[in-house]
UniProtKB/TrEMBL annotation:
<dbReference type="InterPro" id="IPR008928">
    <property type="entry name" value="6-hairpin_glycosidase_sf"/>
</dbReference>
<feature type="signal peptide">
    <location>
        <begin position="1"/>
        <end position="23"/>
    </location>
</feature>
<dbReference type="InterPro" id="IPR018232">
    <property type="entry name" value="Glyco_hydro_37_CS"/>
</dbReference>
<comment type="similarity">
    <text>Belongs to the glycosyl hydrolase 37 family.</text>
</comment>
<dbReference type="InterPro" id="IPR001661">
    <property type="entry name" value="Glyco_hydro_37"/>
</dbReference>
<keyword id="KW-0378">Hydrolase</keyword>
<dbReference type="Pfam" id="PF01204">
    <property type="entry name" value="Trehalase"/>
</dbReference>
<keyword id="KW-0326">Glycosidase</keyword>
<protein>
    <recommendedName>
        <fullName>Trehalase</fullName>
        <ecNumber>3.2.1.28</ecNumber>
    </recommendedName>
</protein>
<keyword id="KW-0732">Signal</keyword>
<dbReference type="InterPro" id="IPR012341">
    <property type="entry name" value="6hp_glycosidase-like_sf"/>
</dbReference>
C-alpha cells in the first residue's frame, strides 16, 4: 500500500474513533465547557477534502449562482485516496494556481456522482391520492383541489438512502438511515431535524401514519448512535442539533394512532436527548433578583471552524477577525445560529444588523426553553402512559421548575411577552445574575412561542395579555406573521414569514380556548393559507418562506437562493386547513 494511502487510512480510522468517542462523552461534558471552552467534534478526511474542492470550485466558477453545499454533498466514485491524488494532479493555471473551468468540470464528472444521487425516490406505501376523511371542512372546490396537490407532493419529497451508502459509507457525507425519509426539498436533499415536526403534522393530515413513524425512528437511531438528533443526516452536521421537537412528533403520532409500542420504543432515546440538552454544553444558570437560581439552556454547537456546507462564506465573513481565537468563537456562533434553525437573524447580533457581531452562544433563547418545557411535559406524559411512576414524577417536577425559570428570566410584565436574555459579554461564567437591561427588548415572533405550551395557553389571565401584545406588536402583517421587525437582509428577519412560526402561534392561540384568541388565530391562518395558494398558483411550487408584506410573494434574503418543495410549508398548510377549513363562499385570492 502506498504511504499516502496508509496515512489516509489511519486518519480515517482515528477520525471515526474520535467521533464515536465524542458521541459517548457528550453526556459528560467537562464543567469548564462554557462558550470559551467546549468540546469540538472532529471532522472527517472526506469532509475536509470536499471543503478544498468547494474552495477550488469557487475560485474556478466564480460566485454567481454558487452554492457551496453542492460540493460537500457529492458522493465519490472511487476511494478518497484515488480521488485526492487525481485532484492533486490537476493542471493549474500558471498565472494564479487555479484550475480551469473545463478541467474542473471534467474532474467532477469523472470522480463524483451528482449531489443527491445517493438518495433514491421512494413511493410511500401509505400514500393514496385522496385519503378517506381528508380535509372534510374544506368546502371550496379550488382550495380542495390545491390541497390535494399539496398532499401529492409527499411523493415528490419521499426518498430512501441508497444501499451504496450502507455498503460504502466512506464515499458519502450522507448518513445511512434504515427507513424512508421526507426531505424539505431543493438544496436540502437530506432529512432535517426540526423540519420533520411540521412534515409529520402534514403527513398525519394525509393519513400517512407509517411514513410519519418511519421519520421518527430514523431520528431515534441518530440519538442511539450520536447521543442527540443531528441538525441533518450528514457527516458535517454531527457537531450540532436543531430545536428539540422529537418528543412533540411522537406525541402527535401517539395522539393520532394510540401506538403505545412507539412510546415504549422511543422513551429511552428521549431521556438521552434530554440529558444532552441539559449537559454543560447547553446549560446556563441565571440568579434572579430574589436570589433564586434558574437553570436554562442555550444553543451551542460543538464546532469552532467554518461550517463545511458554507465554508467559503464563513471564511469570508470571519476575515475581519485577525485573532485566531476570535475567529474560532465567531465560527462557533455561526454554527450555533444554525443549530437554532434561525440562520440568520438580528436576534443573535449584539450590534444589529452587523453580521460580524453574531453572538448566538451569549443568548438564552425563549423558544429553545419553551421546546424543552414541552419535551419535559411529553416525557412525563409518556412515562405515565406506560406506568413508569418514577420518570413521571421526575419530569413533572422538572417541567414545573422550568416554567418558573421561564417566567422569572424571560417574562416582561411591561411588554406582556417573553424576551430572550443576553449573557454578559466577554465572560466564560455560566452562572450570571439577572438584570433587566439584558433582556432583548426587540420584537421577534419567538417572543410568543411559549404560548404554544400548555402551562401558558391554559392560563386564562395570561392569554388575554399576550393576545393584546401580539395584536399590537407590529408582527401581524398583510400575509402572515413577520419573523421580526428589522429588515436586515437576513432570512430570519422582516419581511419574511416562516411556516413553523405561523403554526406555533396559531395553534397556541387555538388551544387557549379563548374566543378572542381563536379569532386572531383564524385571521392569521387565512392570511397564510391565501398567500401560499396564490404563490403556488403563480409559480407551480410551494416555497420555503413567504414575504408577509405582499400576499402571494415568496421570501428572500440570507445566504442561499429561495428554495421550493417544501416540507414544512406543505405540512403547515394542511394542518391549518384541517383546523379551520375553507368555506365555499370565502375568496381564496389575495
Amino acid at each position: 500500500m502506498p504511504l499516502h494511502s496508509l496515512t489516509l487510512l489511519l486518519l480515517c480510522t482515528l477520525s471515526f474513533s474520535l467521533s464515536r468517542a465524542v458521541a459517548s462523552i457528550h453526556m459528560a461534558a467537562p464543567s469548564s465547557s462554557s462558550s470559551c471552552s467546549v468540546i469540538v467534534t472532529p471532522s472527517t478526511p472526506l469532509v475536509s477534502f470536499l471543503e478544498r474542492l468547494q474552495e477550488t470550485a469557487l475560485q474556478t466558477f466564480g460566485d454567481s449562482n454558487f452554492d457551496p453545499k453542492t460540493y460537500v454533498d457529492l458522493p465519490l466514485k472511487f476511494t478518497l485516496s484515488e480521488t485526492h491524488q487525481a485532484f492533486q494532479n490537476l493542471p493549474r493555471l500558471s498565472s494564479n494556481g487555479t484550475v480551469s473551468v473545463e478541467v474542473l468540470k471534467r474532474f467532477i464528472h469523472n470522480y463524483f456522482e451528482g449531489a443527491g444521487d445517493d438518495l433514491v425516490y421512494w413511493q410511500p406505501r401509505d400514500f393514496v391520492a385522496e385519503p378517506e376523511g381528508f380535509l372534510t371542512k374544506v368546502k371550496h372546490p379550488e382550495v380542495r383541489d390545491w390541497a390535494l396537490k399539496v398532499h401529492s407532493l409527499w411523493r415528490n419529497l419521499s426518498r430512501k438512502v441508497s444501499i451504496e451508502v450502507e455498503k460504502n459509507p466512506q464515499l458519502h457525507t450522507l448518513l445511512h438511515l434504515a427507513n424512508p425519509v421526507v426531505i424539505p426539498g431543493s438544496r436540502f436533499r437530506e432529512v432535517y431535524y426540526w423540519d420533520s415536526y411540521w412534515v409529520i403534522r402534514g403527513l398525519l393530515v394525509s393519513k400517512m401514519h407509517k411514513t410519519a413513524t418511519a421519520i421518527v425512528m430514523n431520528l431515534v437511531s441518530l440519538i442511539e448512535k450520536y447521543g442527540f438528533v443531528l441538525n441533518g443526516a450528514r457527516q458535517y452536521y454531527t457537531n450540532r442539533s436543531q430545536p428539540p421537537l422529537l418528543s412533540a412528533m411522537i406525541y402527535e403520532i401517539y395522539r393520532s394512532t394510540g401506538d403505545i409500542e412507539l412510546v415504549k420504543r422511543c422513551l429511552p432515546a428521549l431521556l438521552k436527548e434530554h440529558a444532552f440538552w441539559n449537559s454543560d454544553i447547553h446549560r446556563v444558570t441565571i440568579v434572579d433578583a430574589q436570589g433564586h437560581s434558574h437553570n436554562l439552556n442555550r444553543y451551542q454547537a460543538m464546532w469552532n471552524k467554518p461550517r463545511p456546507e458554507s465554508s467559503t462564506m464563513d471564511k469570508k465573513a470571519a476575515s475581519k477577525f485577525l485573532n485566531i481565537s476570535e475567529k474560532q468563537h465567531f465560527y462557533r456562533d455561526i454554527a450555533s445560529a444554525a443549530e437554532s434553525g434561525w440562520d440568520f437573524s438580528t436576534r443573535w447580533m449584539r450590534d444589529p444588523p452587523d453580521y460580524s457581531t453574531l453572538a448566538t452562544t451569549s443568548v438564552v433563547p425563549v423558544d429553545l426553553n419553551a421546546y424543552l418545557l414541552g419535551m419535559e411535559l411529553n416525557i412525563a406524559f409518556f412515562a405515565k402512559a406506560i406506568g413508569d411512576r418514577t420518570t413521571t414524577k421526575r419530569f413533572t417536577e422538572l417541567s414545573d421548575v422550568r416554567k418558573k425559570a421561564i417566567n422569572s428570566v424571560f417574562w416582561s410584565a411591561n411588554k406582556k411577552q417573553w424576551l430572550d436574555y443576553w449573557l454578559n459579554n466577554g465572560t466564560c461564567e455560566v452562572t450570571q445574575v439577572w438584570e433587566a437591561k439584558h433582556q432583548n427588548k426587540s420584537v421577534f415572533a419567538s417572543n410568543f412561542v411559549p404560548l404554544w405550551m400548555e402551562p401558558f395557553y391554559s392560563d386564562d389571565s395570561l392569554v388575554g395579555s399576550v393576545v393584546h401584545a401580539l395584536k399590537t406588536s407590529g408582527l401581524i402583517r398583510a400575509a402572515g406573521i413577520a419573523t421580526s421587525l428589522t429588515d436586515s437582509g437576513q432570512q430570519w428577519d422582516f419581511p419574511n414569514g416562516w411556516a413553523p412560526l405561523q403554526h406555533m402561534l396559531v395553534e397556541g392561540l387555538v388551544k387557549s380556548g379563548s374566543k378572542e384568541a381563536r379569532s386572531l388565530a383564524e385571521e392569521i391562518a387565512i392570511k397564510w393559507i391565501r398567500s401560499n395558494y396564490v404563490s403556488f398558483k403563480k409559480t407551480g411550487v410551494m416555497h420555503e418562506k413567504l414575504d408577509v408584506e405582499k400576499c402571494g410573494e415568496y421570501g428572500g434574503g440570507g445566504e442561499y437562493t429561495p428554495q421550493t418543495g417544501f416540507g414544512w410549508s406543505n405540512g403547515v398548510v394542511l394542518a391549518l386547513l384541517e383546523e379551520f377549513g375553507w368555506p365555499q363562499d370565502r375568496s381564496i385570492d389575495c
